[in-house]
Amino acid sequence: MELTTKEKIIHSSLALFSEFGYHATGVRKIAKDVGIRESAIYNHFKNKEDILTHIIDKYFDSTFLLKDNINLNIDKPKSTLLDIAMSFKLLSYDKNSDKFFRFFIIEIMQNKNVRDKYLDNYLEKQINALSSLFFEMMQKGLIGSSDPISLAWEFLSSLFFYRFQISVFNIDRFQSSNTIASSFEKHISIFWNSIKNSN
Amino acid sequence: MELTTKEKIIHSSLALFSEFGYHATGVRKIAKDVGIRESAIYNHFKNKEDILTHIIDKYFDSTFLLKDNINLNIDKPKSTLLDIAMSFKLLSYDKNSDKFFRFFIIEIMQNKNVRDKYLDNYLEKQINALSSLFFEMMQKGLIGSSDPISLAWEFLSSLFFYRFQISVFNIDRFQSSNTIASSFEKHISIFWNSIKNSN
DNA sequence: GTCTATACCGAGATAGAC
DNA sequence: GTCTATCTCGGTATAGAC
Fold first, then answer.
1. pLDDT for A1
2. Exposure check for chain A: N or C terminus, fewer CB within 10 A?
């Protein structure tokens, strides 16, 4: 697979941004990594920030969105939840997705554009989708009655943290990520055990 | 309370670092915020990185460590867990601690020194302490038998995420943090409901 | 589309007067 | 301990030849 220069620039930039941060990464470094001169960068991107924007637009979805063939079969509620958790786990152990994740965590804290994307395009959608799912389950009597939004937060929180933690381990303690490899499944087990209707 | 120049530098630096990041914050900006010239900074710190090091050393503990008067009364297991959660909540809604938290999240991803502190001085200790607590509870038959380390991860994960999320909301959607204000308590309720021994 | 050369700026940092 | 003045370096970005 032959990458165009533009693709190479994006690829190198992302690798450097996710390791050193956006500000600490110079255009010279990017150019060197690609194998061209700084000036050649500007044939493909307006400026440095333009590279950042392209990366965000191109990779945000693939970094955060779960596989969309999740079986939302309401009659098998526990395995539906497990499916979602496994989708998180898949992303966590995907090398590329993990790199983007680190990059985005940094940018969420510093870049309003990324932060808004995270809050509106990701978090809110996830919470809404999960709330609906739990609401349905309650109506069918599969789980006890309570606030579906709170359940959604509780369900998501652990999955997100495990992904965060694996991402931190993966920087320079790759082996340690094994210690929480089974946490995604364990979460479903504990969570389901708490909310299920036991009649 | 009169702050020394050195303290003022640390204070201003932290505010700027946590808002714009370490690399995006110049020594000139810090000096201006303090009300002195750049050169005067160097009477107090060797260089810019030296300021960073001092901040980390001075504030890491107060950012992450829970209040140490938590009552680890094993005979009231649920309220012990609630105490821990409330300690998290307290830190989340403390304005200063919240600022440091954002700063440290960024640095965890980019700075090996901070990352090691997070992993060794914070995370491992927390997991160990919680594991011991759950182990004791199992031995006393207060909760069902399972892997105490997994329980510790599951318990901590939600609390950490809620803190993370409140910190993100607090940047420019202060109002939204209310939506998860009760999540800390809710977490204890759901978690305890799952692990308690019901005999 | 990439190169060389260069402009320009702001960064971190130092010397020495006060 | 702070100031002014200044240095050097590396950053982003552009002009114009090939």
1. 65
2. N
| Low pLDDT (below 50) residues in chain B | none
Asked whether residue A57 is domain-assigned, the answer is: no
B149 three-state secondary structure = helix
Distance B44 CA to D1 C1' (A): 9
Q: What is the 3-state secondary structure (H, E, C) of A111-175?
A: CHHHHHHHHHHHHHHHHHHHHHHHHHHHHCCCECCCCHHHHHHHHHHHHHHHHHHHHHHHHHCHH
| Residue with CA nearest C1' of nucleotide C3 | A37
A47, A73: one domain: no
Q: Are residues A17 and A84 in the same domain?
A: no
What average pLDDT does the segment A142-169 reach?
A: 97
| pLDDT score for B199 | 59
Residue A58 lies in a domain: no
Same domain for B121 and B34, yes or no, is no
The backbone torsions φ and ψ at residue B14, rounded to the nearest 5 degrees and listed phi first, read -60, -45
Question: What's the Cα-to-Cα distance from A172 to each of A78, B108, B109, rounded to whole Å?
Answer: 35, 12, 11
Domain extent, residue B26, equals 1-51
Q: Is B198 on the interface with A (CB under 8 A)?
A: no
